[in-house]
């Protein structure tokens, strides 16, 4: 189960009421920073933009590939550990606006995590250290440290223990 805070709304759908939740000027600033970062090929500059202008927690040597889309409304609720790779065109969300409510949840990505291209990370999930997320995965729940997951719906392909056994078996063959 994802860890999100739920806020009911009355009247029109929650997205239509977005600016009651988030100041318009914050959205404009975030949009400009995020679009700049998406197209910037210089990794240290991306991390600086995310840390200093969006309030994200980003570890040393973390790499956001081209076109990564971080949450527009609440990017400050994203934390990424050190030495992590986030693949091309991945989306990291910390909010969901529905018909009768909106939800907000922190996204925590550990150290040395590999997230494949075109993945989507939903609000309220934690991805443990050294986990691997296959390309195109929709991350709908927490991922244990060292696990390899993939698919839509996401499923565990290998646990940390199974991954370690595979590495040992490969070393024996080599």
TrEMBL record:
Gene source species: Amphibacillus xylanus (strain ATCC 51415 / DSM 6626 / JCM 7361 / LMG 17667 / NBRC 15112 / Ep01)
What UniProt keywords are attached to this protein's entry? Answer: Repeat, Transferase
Entry-linked Gene3D superfamilies:
Hexapeptide repeat proteins
InterPro entries for this protein = Hexapep, Hexapep_transf_CS, Trans_hexapeptide_repeat, Trimer_LpxA-like_sf
Q: GO molecular function, one example?
A: transferase activity
Task: Spell out the PANTHER family in the cross-references.
Answer: ACETYLTRANSFERASE, ACETYLTRANSFERASE YVOF-RELATED
Q: Which Pfam families does this one have?
A: Hexapep_2
Report what the protein is called: Acetyltransferase
């Amino acid at each position: 189960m994802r860890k999100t805070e739920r806020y009911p709304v009355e009247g029109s759908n929650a997205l239509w009421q977005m600016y009651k939740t988030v100041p318009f000027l914050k959205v404009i600033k975030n949009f400009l920073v995020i679009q700049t970062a998406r197209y910037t090929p210089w990794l240290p500059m991306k991390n600086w933009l995310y840390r200093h202008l969006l309030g994200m927690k980003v570890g040393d040597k973390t790499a956001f590939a081209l076109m990564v889309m971080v949450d527009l409304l609440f990017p400050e609720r994203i934390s990424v550990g050190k030495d992590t790779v986030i693949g091309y065109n991945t989306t990291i969300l910390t909010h969901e606006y529905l018909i009768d409510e909106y939800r907000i949840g922190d996204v925590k990505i550990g150290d040395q995590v590999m997230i494949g291209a075109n993945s989507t990370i939903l609000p309220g999930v934690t991805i443990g250290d050294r986990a691997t997320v296959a390309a195109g995965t929709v991350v709908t729940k927490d991922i244990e440290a060292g696990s390899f997951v993939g698919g839509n719906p996401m499923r565990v392909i290998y646990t940390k223990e199974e991954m370690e056994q595979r590495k040992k078996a490969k070393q024996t063959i080599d």
